[in-house]
């Protein structure tokens, strides 16, 4: 007769995340949410009461229940699928399935093992130096790695998490003046936070999840924020490169311990290391240990990575290549622009026509772009809208923006005449 599993164990083993939590002083704070606080002892009991010995699918919110549910899920039996409705039946050693944000195409379910999660947490702690004395502010959704990785990192180090119910710049800034020492934000969040400065007492503010507009890091640093550009993705359970805390301010990131990076012949960034996912939901394991991303980049002499844009957002117009992110970074510096996304719309003459969809009041935006970009990069059509379609984590939904731009263009909006490509 097989031995009955102990409380807090599945099939007779103690899951790593539960082991991490058990080794911390039970009276130490693990989670703060609103007016409530859970110690490691209290959180551990919540997690162990939710353990099940079978795969499960869950939809998470920024709530204590979701935190305990997902820790129990990755500590239990089978794969925990987080995100869109899916069957939680993934075989093998998969412990967690997280879906990509779907900014370009349909979200993909990324299979992650406990080994991936441990490697990611350990590399982050070694690179940034965060430990049990750190309190990480969480306002990113738990159904994406930006939020999930904070929970796992803090459980690994014995640190604490201060969780908000969502992002409100005033509330977030107020929390940054409390016990918080570590923060993770996307560029849009950072741009709103600098208006609430100055700040002090923070050890690191990780900035990732999208292109960082020129000048934003300098503004943030001037407001007292120790900003560190970071690069990562669902397939690596978060950061694989972050600017070293002792480095000079720069729009680049250094590989984390155990992570190898290279640039392929097509300019795409490739990543290798123990935190790289073995593959996608419903597909076999990736045969090559190198995961080739869709991001374009370059590696400097000191090994630092600079992300140049996305290969799948490249627009080919009249034989010229247009990096959408480069155009957007220029447009977003216009004082009247709150948001701008550039996409390619099929065109009989140009192959693809560069089109801008933006929010704001900027009658001089075309002139602004023409003075700062090669002529072939200047959008040929402009559409002012009330809001930019976004994914659940606040990134522009490029697929939805492209459909919107095509629809607006097909309605016959006036087109701007530009000189032929290459005549600058």
Give structural notes:
The chain is built from eleven helices and 25 strands. It has 424 residues and is α/β, with parallel strands linked by helices. The protein has two domains: 9-309, Rossmann fold (3-Layer(aba) Sandwich); 318-410, ANL, C-terminal domain (GMP Synthetase, Chain A, domain 3, 2-Layer Sandwich), CATH 3.30.300. The strands form six sheets. It has a nine-stranded mixed β-sheet. Mean pLDDT is 88; it is low at 1-12 and 414-424.
- As a whole number of angstroms, the C-alpha radius of gyration is 23 Å
Spans where pLDDT lies below 50 across 5 or more residues = 1-12, 414-424
Percent in helix: 10-25%
**How would a crystallographer describe the biggest sheet?**
9 strands, mixed
Tell the overall outline: globular
CATH class of the largest domain: Alpha Beta
What distance lies between the first and last C-alpha atoms, to the nearest angstrom?
80 Å
Helix-strand blueprint:
Elements: E1 9-10, E2 13-14, H1 16-22, E3 29-33, E4 36-39, H2 40-48, E5 56-58, H3 64-75, E6 80-82, E7 96-99, E8 109-112, H4 114-128, E9 135-138, H5 145-157, E10 160-163, H6 169-175, E11 182-185, H7 187-193, E12 204-207, H8 216-222, E13 227-233, E14 238-242, E15 254-255, E16 260-263, E17 268-272, E18 279-280, E19 291-299, E20 305-310, E21 314-317, E22 320-323, H9 324-331, E23 337-347, E24 351-360, H10 365-370, E25 381-384, H11 398-410
Parallel strand pairs: 3-10, 5-6, 6-7, 9-10, 9-11, 11-12, 12-13, 24-25
Antiparallel strand pairs: 1-2, 3-4, 7-8, 8-18, 13-14, 14-15, 16-17, 17-19, 19-20, 21-22, 23-24
